[in-house]
């Protein structure tokens, strides 16, 4: 990639920058080169050091600025708005290995060290003349014998802790050290934690980080599509001023894996932004969005797979949000009025609103329970699984695998399928209840059927069987009530509506006028006209269940192992 291309495309520029420090060895090279590490952005620095041994991190810390060291602790030592005990021990171990006295003192005189100390240890005043010792041996006295520190039984860095306290007394003096530690005795932990949390939140803001609760607002969808459209109509472009620290922030390569290919729509829209201040603002806005999404899933601490997962979700929403906003404001330079957070929220809302429709419809049926979901059949179960996947997907007609919903065309097809599904559910439920009643009345028996046990019969099997019976004229005869078809009836259906391709039969599909006419009559006969695109569903399940068999050459034993229609355990061959 040439330099002009990098400057032209903001996303490509971020990807290019991210290659500079992908792992600890890259940081070491910068140290060896004599480069000022204080310019390394915080997020890639944190990720690069995340899986690095404590002694290696201890070696790097003195090369960083005090603001960078504080930021690394701020990211690591909190879980939402509470101190993370494991992270406390981790940073105590790191600083116990630091050789620079100034850096060690910076840590042990910091408010976050005091808070971490209070989170994990018990400290109380000690009277030499009237000593009161705790049960057990997990304690020691400070240098002046005025404070007693009790530590957890499983704590294995006692000597390191004692050394830190000794350094504190030696470096700032007995009176100051006592006063500093005495805060642990008299101050409320809850108030200390809240105060430090707010300070941590403000410190990290300039580095492009968003705290958990603010990140929730990024992920809070609009209530309905009208709200989305209202937001798009009234949104005004705002370009905030950035200081040098914020402008310098970037992302680790692991955060950007999902953005390395495709995204032509976003890149093209960004290329239309010519104002340098706006470009710089959008750069920082993207960093904040990515970090906010990482914060919600704790992905920075959970590794590259977690970061990639979150990145894929974010990218999907950005692409969909861009297309939707562009469709409502086609003549505008989208990124002059909207930023990445805006587009993410639009796309995220669109996806969540569709998921909400599905969840609401399912909640009114027993099919949301694992024991009954089988009745929906493979097609709708796959639809539900793909819809609620980490990155929402939909298997389009004829596609070999589900594809991401990332543009308006795929979003519209997904919504059409959702409408079909949610409208069909009451009808599916009626069949389910009827089947359950027949089973309860002992009117069904596994011996009646060749390829199904009664407990495995699902809606797809009933629909395909009913359709085969319908086109065979059985709903005009006395046998209209039979649930299933014979092998010969299935073969006749194949010969009428399937074409032979080598040794396999493939359904002619909706382009066949006879099949299309029979489908329309079947839908009307069964009162399915109120379900939009039910014909499309029927074609799809026949395609997936019936395509690819050589029915003329199959034995009865072969038919025992196929899905699709319910085969009766007798034939008229």
Structure description:
It is built from 28 helices and 9 strands. It starts with a helix and ends in a 14-residue tail after the last helix. The strands form 4 sheets. The chain has a 3-stranded antiparallel sheet with strand order 3-5-4, with helices on one face. With 573 residues, it is mainly alpha-helical. Helices cover 58% and strands 5% of the residues.
Give me a quick take on this structure.
With 573 residues, this protein is mainly alpha-helical. The chain has helices spanning 3-8, 10-18, 24-32, 42-50, 54-60, 66-76, 85-96, 101-108, 111-120, 158-172, 174-186, 189-205, 212-218, 225-234, 244-247, 264-271, 276-297, 299-302, 304-328, 334-337, 340-363, 377-387, 408-440, 459-471, 487-497, 513-525, 534-546, 556-559; strands at residues 78-79, 82-83, 122-125, 139-141, 147-150, 393-394, 403-404, 498-501, 504-507.
Sheet with most strands: 3 strands, antiparallel
Oligomer category:
single chain
Tell me, briefly, the overall form: elongated
Strand content: under 5%
Number of strands: 9
How far is the first residue's CA from the last residue's CA? 68 Å
- Helical amount among residues, as a percent range? 55-70%
Number of helical elements: 28
**Helix-and-strand structural type:** mainly alpha
What radius of gyration results from the CA coordinates?
Answer: 33 Å
Mean pLDDT across residues: 91
Q: Which regions contain 5 or more consecutive residues with pLDDT less than 50?
A: 1-7
Strand order in the largest sheet: 3-5-4
């Amino acid at each position: 990639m040439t330099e002009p291309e990098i400057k032209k495309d903001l996303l490509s520029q971020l990807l290019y920058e991210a290659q500079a420090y992908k792992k600890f060895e890259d940081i070491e090279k910068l140290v060896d080169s004599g480069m000022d590490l204080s310019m390394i952005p915080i997020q890639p620095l944190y990720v690069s050091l995340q899986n690095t041994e404590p002694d290696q991190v201890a070696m790097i810390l003195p090369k960083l600025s005090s603001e960078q060291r504080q930021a690394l602790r701020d990211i690591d030592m909190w879980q939402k708005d509470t101190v993370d005990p494991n992270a406390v021990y981790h940073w105590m171990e790191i600083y116990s290995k630091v050789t620079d006295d100034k850096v060690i003192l910076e840590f042990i005189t910091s408010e976050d060290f005091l808070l971490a100390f209070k989170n994990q240890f018990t400290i109380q005043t000690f009277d030499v003349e009237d000593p009161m010792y705790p049960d057990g041996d997990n304690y020691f006295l400070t240098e002046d014998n005025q404070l007693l520190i009790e530590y957890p039984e499983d704590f294995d860095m006692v000597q390191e802790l004692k050394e830190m306290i000794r350094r504190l007394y030696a470096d700032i003096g007995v009176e100051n050290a006592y006063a500093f530690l005495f805060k642990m005795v008299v101050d409320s932990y809850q108030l200390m934690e809240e105060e430090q949390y707010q300070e941590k939140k403000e410190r990290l803001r300039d580095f492009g980080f968003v705290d958990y609760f603010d990140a929730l607002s990024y992920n809070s969808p609009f209530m309905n599509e009208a709200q989305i459209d209202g937001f798009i109509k009234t949104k005004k472009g705002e370009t905030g001023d950035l200081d040098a620290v914020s402008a310098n922030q970037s992302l680790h390569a692991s955060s950007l894996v999902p953005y390395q290919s495709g995204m032509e729509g976003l890149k093209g829209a960004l290329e239309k932004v010519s104002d340098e201040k706006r470009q710089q603002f959008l750069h920082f806005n993207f960093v904040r969005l990515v970090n906010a999404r990482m914060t919600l899933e704790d992905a920075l601490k959970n590794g590259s797979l977690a970061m990639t997962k979150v990145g894929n979700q974010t990218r999907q929403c950005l692409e969909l949000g861009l297309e939707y906003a562009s469709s409502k404001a086609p003549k505008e330079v989208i990124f002059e009025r909207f930023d990445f957070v805006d587009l993410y929220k639009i796309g995220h809302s669109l996806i969540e609103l569709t998921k909400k429709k599905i969840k609401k419809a399912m909640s009114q049926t027993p099919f949301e329970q694992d024991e009954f979901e089988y009745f929906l059949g493979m097609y709708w179960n796959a639809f539900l699984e793909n819809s609620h996947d980490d990155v929402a997907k939909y298997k389009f007609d004829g596609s070999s695998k589900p594809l991401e919903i990332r543009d308006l065309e795929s979003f519209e097809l997904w919504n059409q399928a959702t409408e079909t599904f949610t409208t069909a559910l009451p009808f599916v439920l009626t069949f389910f209840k009827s089947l359950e009643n027949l089973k309860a009345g002992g009117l069904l028996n596994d011996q009646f059927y060749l390829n199904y046990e009664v407990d495995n019969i699902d809606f797809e099997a009933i629909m395909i069987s009913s359709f085969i019976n319908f086109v065979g004229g059985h709903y005009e005869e006395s046998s209209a009530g039979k649930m299933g078809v014979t092998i010969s009836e299935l073969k006749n259906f194949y010969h009428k509506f399937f074409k032979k391709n080598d040794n396999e039969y493939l359904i002619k599909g909706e382009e066949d006028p006879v099949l299309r006419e029979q489908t329309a009559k079947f839908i009307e006969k069964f009162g399915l006209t109120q379900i939009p695109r039910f014909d499309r569903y029927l074609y799809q399940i026949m395609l997936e269940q019936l395509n690819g068999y050589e029915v003329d050459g199959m034995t009865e034993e072969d038919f025992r192992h196929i899905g699709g229609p319910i085969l009766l355990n007798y034939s008229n061959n």
